[in-house]
């Protein structure tokens, strides 16, 4: 395994007219290539801020963030948010090719890869539909394919399932988790859903309330073969991890 992302003693404060708002304090952790890391913490503690620093949208006030890429190229980062931000005036196909189209590098090869993903992940027959004709789950799948079309090395997922109702959320989270594993992507998922974190992640990073400090990092080891997000939920250790994370967050912490 090789390290893909490293944060060393990262701190960040928002400066606004109302004053200083410290958001992150002395955050250090690493993410390995191919790893799926979940970040949980109380609402407003600084999780989205942390992703904005990793993506380079904001710069740390103190500390370092290093991204290592396998080639000598810049690490490509893909972002997935709670809202799928699909354009209603474009078909699903024209939505998922948007990134390469904007970058003017929609090669035949890229097009074939995108077609193949639509096919593999059950969206081929919806190619020429409008986003409003798809279910919430299928829309998130389309949003993921649009993100993957950019060939990201690292995926940042900021509560991408929280707009969905409970049942849909479980199946969409499983679905998206499987696709990310199958495409061998490295991913960081911010979520407030403990079960989602345990079922998807190799490790869970628990943050304290604002300004967020890393409270603990818990590796998830489940004694089931061919672990998938869905089967993870049936692992005998699942409940113990749930209780442990619940305790680490503190009562009423979520
Ligand atoms: P989370 O994603 O964990 O809910 P955020 O990272 O969005 O938390 O926000 C962390 C804290 O920083 C919150 O208290 C929020 O109000 C504050 N914050 C977020 N964005 C800004 C901003 N642009 N200016 C000032 N404060 C902000
Ligand atoms: Mg947030």
Instruction: List segments where confidence is low: pLDDT < 50 over at least 5 consecutive residues.
Output: none
Q: What is the CATH architecture term of the largest domain?
A: 3-Layer(aba) Sandwich
Mean pLDDT over the full residue set: 92
Which percent range fits the helix content?
25-40%
Distance between the termini: 32 Å
- The dominant shape is globular
> How many helical stretches?
9
Q: In CATH terms, what is the fold-level topology of the largest domain? A: Rossmann fold
Percent of residues in beta strands? 25-35%
The tally of strands reads 9
Largest sheet: 6 strands, mixed
Radius of gyration from the alpha-carbon trace, in angstroms: 18 Å
CATH superfamily of the largest domain: P-loop containing nucleotide triphosphate hydrolases
CATH first level of the largest domain: Alpha Beta
Ligands in the model, by name, code or SMILES, are: adenosine-5'-diphosphate, magnesium ion
Strand neighbour order, sheet with most strands? 5-6-7-3-8-9
Would you write up a description of this structure?
The protein has 254 residues and is α/β, with parallel strands linked by helices. The protein folds into 2 domains: 1-76 and 154-254, Rossmann fold; 84-151, no CATH class. Helix content is 33%, strand content 25%. It has 9 helices and 9 strands. It has helices at residues 47-54, 92-96, 98-102, 108-120, 136-148, 166-182, 194-200, 229-232, 238-249, and strands spanning 3-16, 19-32, 36-40, 62-67, 77-80, 154-158, 186-190, 203-207, 214-219. Helix 5 (136-148) runs parallel beside helix 6 (166-182) and helix 7 (194-200) packs across helix 9. The two termini are 32 Å apart.
């Amino acid at each position: 395994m090789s390290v893909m992302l490293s944060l060393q003693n990262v701190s960040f404060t928002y400066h606004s007219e109302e004053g200083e708002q410290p958001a992150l304090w002395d955050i250090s952790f690493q993410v390995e290539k191919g790893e799926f890391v979940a970040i949980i913490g109380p609402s407003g503690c600084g999780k989205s801020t942390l992703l904005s620093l990793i993506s380079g949208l904001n710069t740390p006030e103190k500390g370092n963030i290093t991204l290592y890429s396998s080639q000598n190229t810049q690490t490509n980062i893909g972002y997935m948010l709670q809202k799928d931000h699909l354009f209603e005036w474009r078909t699903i196909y024209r939505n998922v090719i948007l990134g390469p189209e904007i970058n003017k590098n929609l090669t035949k090869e890229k097009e074939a890869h995108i077609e193949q993903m639509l096919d593999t992940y059950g969206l081929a027959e919806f190619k020429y539909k409008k986003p409003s004709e798809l279910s919430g789950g299928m829309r998130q799948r389309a949003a993921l394919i649009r993100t993957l079309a950019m060939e990201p090395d690292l995926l940042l997922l900021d509560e991408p399932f929280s707009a969905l109702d409970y049942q849909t959320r479980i199946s969409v989270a499983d679905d998206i988790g499987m696709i990310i594993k199958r495409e061998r992507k490295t991913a960081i998922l911010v979520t407030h859903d403990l079960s989602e974190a345990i079922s998807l992640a190799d490790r869970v990073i628990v943050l304290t309330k604002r300004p967020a400090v890393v409270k603990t990092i818990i590796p998830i080891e489940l004694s089931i073969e061919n672990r998938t997000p869905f089967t993870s939920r049936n692992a005998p250790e699942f409940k113990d991890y749930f209780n442990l994370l619940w305790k680490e967050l503190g009562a009423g912490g979520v």
